[in-house]
Amino acid sequence: MAGKRALEEARKGRRWLRRLLGAVATGVLLVAVVVTAFTFAAVQWTTRAPCSDPTRTPADVGLPYEPLLLRAADGVTLRGWYIPPRHGIVILHVANLRNPLDGALDEAAMLARHGYGALLYEAPPCAGVANSLGGREVLDVKAALDYLAGRPEVERIGAIGFSAGAVTLLRAAARYPEIEAVVAEGGMADLAQGLAPVPDNGLGWWIRVVVLFSYRVATGLDPHTVRPVAEVGRISPRPLLLIYGDQEPNYTSGAAEALYRAAGEPKFLWVIPGARHGAYRWVAGERYDRCLLAFFNAALQSGAPSLPFSSFPDGCTIELPDLSPRDPPAGPLHDLKRVTGSLR
Asked: Is the whole model's pTM more than 0.85, yes or no?
């Protein structure tokens, strides 16, 4: 009798264990399904999130402009604005993840007060196209360069891009020598790594697999092929300025250092204390405008002096030039303190 009871207890124990294991397996499967669905949706939203229509035009900040359409080689058509230069130099503002047409208007207006023209265009999601975060968007940059090549008043071209726009710009500048000066803000060094900065444990591995698969579904591209760190060296000898905040993931993860090390001379790294991703101008204030203007002046204007940049944290030592509107001088712009490197 006792043996029968023991056998029954053993059977109950095995049934309980099977139920427990089944519940655990169900829970793990449920978590995996939820994580997979959430991750897939997040990637789809990131690449296809709608952008807003512009609320301003260059005319609202006192600038003449021409509306235009850029048609890339793959058929994607984007709206743009062209602001003519006063001294033959145009700055191309490369579209970010989903910024509207007026997303970079403030920076363009600041530079325009010093004679620089601008070409601004909307992000692909504004036209209903997925943003591949620097993959196919290189074609949009080529379309913009082709447009500028048809403008007889354009003599030189610089460019600036933020985040996904920085990834696009670094890859485009490596291909197109027409871009003679590059400012890349907050960009990833390696898209596959930057998309899924998760630990290499079981859940982290699964999240990375889902993220990269979701990116392929959304864009049709292999994220491992989008590696600015492997291409940035081809920008040299054209000048490169990398800007990051010391509070943003792409700086703390080592992307800024990786890009800087891979780049050729002349190269500059400006790390803005206290700035998060995209908050560079908000944190640095007028100093941001001064440094940006000084970089393009030295890189693109004949007779300009060497740049007052040091590639250490908070490396922009500029106090000049004056930001009041003026026509650009024909000779040297200012007696700026030389800290490191020369663009000439």
From this structure: no
